[in-house]
Design goal:
Blueprint (H helix, E strand, L loop, with lengths): L2 H12 L5 E6 L4 H8 L3 E6 L9 H7 L4 E7 L11 H10 L5 E5 L23 E6 L12 E4 L4 H8 L7 H12 L1 H24 L3 E2 L9 E2 L3 H10 L12
Parallel strand pairs: 1-2, 1-3, 3-4, 4-5
Antiparallel strand pairs: 5-6, 7-8
The protein binds pyridoxal-5'-phosphate.
């Protein structure tokens, strides 16, 4: 299944008209987009402004009897900030078991710490779902393939909602070959990690405010975004014009 499709299916399966979903703010926009489509309410809990970490206690405080789902992109998009498995597990122990926690590990391959995943916890927590994509570290965005790790009854419910024949042979064969080629992934990730360290040093040298990233991008405070966008365009770099908040 593709990751974006998993986001849509989980949202469709879990959220109802009356229910509430909690996300960190900022985070990947597709979670709220699909909650909007289901006409559910999205509650946004700001990340810690100083270091970009997810405010777990504030999320717990935002849980109501209507909350059915919490999303966590880890590392988060667009901040790049990574939450340790121990912190996520502590959060899970405090979260009502009726609330599903979806940890989207789209960028987890880029994390310095080896095996920085909460996937093994799925066996222990029925309300935990882990999502992965081959669009990032594997460099296969156009193949449109990813996967989810979850328990029943969610798995069976999602199978009922999913369209039949949702993957082509190309996706299955290509995706399997990519996952089997872990040497290629390791080489790719090592390059990203070393470039990330260099870029972080550059940002420090420039005196810019940024969040420590464990992904393949940085959240940098640049002041006047439009001006920076124009300057980058003149230098031959086209940047996303939706970056208009700070
Ligand atoms: C956190 C996160 N999850 C999921 C996706 C979607 O990945 P895919 O290409 O597999 O749909 C993205 C893409 O930017 C992302 O940033």
């Amino acid at each position: 299944m593709i990751n974006a499709e998993l986001i849509q299916l989980i949202t469709r399966t879990i959220l109802t008209l009356e229910s509430e979903m909690i996300v960190a703010d900022p985070t990947f926009g597709e979670y709220a987009l699909h909650a909007d489509i289901e006409q559910a309410k999205t509650v946004k809990v700001p990340v810690n402004a100083i270091d970009g970490h997810v405010a777990f206690e504030a999320i717990l405080a935002a849980v109501t009897d209507k909350t059915t789902m919490v999303w966590l992109a880890n590392p988060n998009n667009p901040t790049g900030v990574f939450e340790k498995s121990a912190d996520i597990e502590l959060f899970l122990t405090k979260l009502p078991s009726t609330v599903t926690l979806v940890v989207d590990e789209a960028y987890y391959d880029f994390v310095d710490e080896p095996n920085a995943t909460v996937a093994p916890l799925v066996a222990q927590y029925q309300n935990l779902v882990v999502l992965r994509t081959l669009s990032k570290a594997y460099g296969l965005a156009n193949l449109r393939i990813g996967y989810g790790i979850m328990q029943d009854p969610l798995y069976t419910a999602m199978q009922a909602v999913r369209l039949p024949y949702n993957l082509s042979t190309y996706q299955i064969v290509g995706g399997t070959a990519a996952i089997l080629d872990q040497e290629y992934l390791k080489r790719n990730v090592a390059i990203f990690q070393s470039e990330r360290t260099k870029f972080q040093k550059f940002l420090c040298d420039q005196g810019l405010m940024f969040y420590e990233s464990q992904a393949n991008f940085f959240w940098v405070k640049v002041g006047e975004v439009k001006k920076v966008g124009q300057a980058l365009l003149q230098a031959g770099y086209q940047v996303n014009d939706r970056l208009n908040s700070e």
